[in-house]
Amino acid sequence: MAKPKPNNADVLVGLGERIRKLRKKRGWTQEIMAEKIGMDRSFIADLERGKRNITILNLVVLAQGFGITLSQFLSRL
């Protein structure tokens, strides 16, 4: 039986929840995270709400900023 194709919106929301969880685990506000990884706070807010699609390059920046591999970052999304 074929695996069901994920809904794009569900993937973005799941990614946003992952970002928020990792950020809060470190005790970072969106402003602190933005400074640490060099992204705009409003972009991070949009990502956390699942409102923005993100490039692979920005995914790498996020993973590095959290100190984890891209594989760990995307695991079980």
Q: H/E order of the elements?
A: HHHHH
Characterize the main sheet.
none
Number of helices: 5
Beta-strand level of the residues, as a percent range? under 5%
End-to-end gap: 21 Å
Number of strands: 0
Overall 3D geometry?
globular
Mean pLDDT over all positions: 94
Stretches where pLDDT falls below 50 for ≥5 residues? Answer: none
Helix content: 55-70%
In short:
By secondary structure, the chain is an all-alpha fold. It is built from five helices and no strands.
Can you offer a commentary on this structure?
With 77 residues, the protein is an all-alpha fold. The chain has helices at 8-25, 30-37, 41-48, 56-66, 70-74.
Layout: helices, strands, pairs:
Blueprint: H1 8-25, H2 30-37, H3 41-48, H4 56-66, H5 70-74
Structural descriptors:
0% strand; 65% helix; 77 residues
